User: Fold this.
Amino acid sequence: MKHSLLIVDDEPDFLHVLKSYFSFGDFEVQTAASGEAALEALAQATYDAVVTDMAMPDINGIELLKTIRQTDRYTPVIIMTGVGTIESAVEATKLGAFHYITKPFKPQDLENLVVRASEHGRMNRQLARQESEYDEGPDFVMGQSKKVRDVISMIQKVAGSDAPVLIMGETGTGKSLFARRIHLKSSRARRAFLTIDCAALAETLLESELFGHVKGAFTGAISAKRGLLEEAQGGTIFLDEIGELAPGTQVKLLRAIQEHEIKPVGGNKSIRVDVRFISATSRDLRKEIEAGNFREDLYFRLAVIPLHLPPLRDRMEDLPLFVDHFVKRFNKRYKKQIHRVDQGFMNMLKTSPWKGNVRELENAIERAVLLADDETIHMDSLLFGSPAAGGPDNREGALLLKDVIEEAEKQAIIRALAEADGNRTLAARNLGIARRTLYDKMGQYQLK
Ligand SMILES: Nc1ncnc2c1ncn2[C@@H]1O[C@H](COP(=O)(O)OP(=O)(O)OP(=O)(O)O)[C@@H](O)[C@H]1O
Ligand SMILES: [Mg+2]
Assistant:
């Protein structure tokens, strides 16, 4: 990705030189010949970094920085300063400038600063976005179910500590979401949160990804690379699908956790790392340990705080909350105005096994919202296109729909009967139908 850059200086020649320097490589450069012009440019577009001269006749570097900060906390500002203004440049870093550079300088030095600033700004912006997304909860459903409330109160207790957390749960139960939430509730919230998908990378690649490598460590290692553990310094590392970790990598990770130290691949110097570990798995790690696939010592290191996220089918009392939440979200995304969900649809949701858990529900609702053409989601929104669409398939669709309804009904009855231990009065009440109707339906579906 290119770094977009705004350079501000009242000296046209200097501006021209910098512009031509940065027009090669990974930059997109815009220039402004005064503080005023800079503010105008900033009103039109956002930049990954702003480089500004300190002394300018109209608005000086510090004033420009202050004005930018009034509306924008994140865009990094680098101040270029002559000898006479170093003190004010130092002052500027206290006011939130990313750095300053003293004229004359080598363009390469400015380039290095700009790249760092731009990456830093991006990370901060991303963090802020995640925070507003996850932290204040517009995108997070807590739920009423006891199981989830227990998890949440546990998170509140442990978030502040650096204790490693292991999140267990089936696919789609919210492991990644919860991992991020723990990070955002911790004192490391303003630092990096990096995810490593242990399942996605081959063993050797994963190691160099985690620990970094030195130049020449293996074919293709043309330069040294920092590992993610070092990259996350001060922050949190999220090891996703930890159960997939190869035995060799398990040993090295264990050492990193125990000693707070890593050794880049091919290197012999250890580097201190200060990171918090959160891991997640959808496997039963106890079984993996018994089968000899996962080290028990590593398990104990990672699972100081174990959290179990319940599958959706074990927290069905939260279903209406999720439905409401996702309908609102997709209303917004697809500019729809759905206010109601009909009973048939709801019943179908209630009886689905939700093997894909919250993710599957989310997808189902997205589809339903997308397909619904009035303000209600009907049963048919779940699986079929709009019934008003017409066309030769319509009859077949209607027929299928009937089957679907019957199947859903049948499943709901089986479930209700099982939950009521065969007590039909209770089952009928839980289903919200008369006992007589229940008997009729049981006959119809040949349920005894
Ligand atoms: N409590 C919740 N509130 C709102 N959305 C949720 C919640 N739990 C899960 N989701 C949503 O469900 C989807 C799946 O969640 P997430 O990716 O965290 O699951 P996961 O357990 O990490 O899945 P996988 O094992 O496949 O990695 C996401 O889109 C997430 O936003
Ligand atoms: Mg996940």
Notes: Residues 132-136, 384-401 have pLDDT under 50 and may be disordered. The chain has three domains: 3-124, 137-308, 314-444.
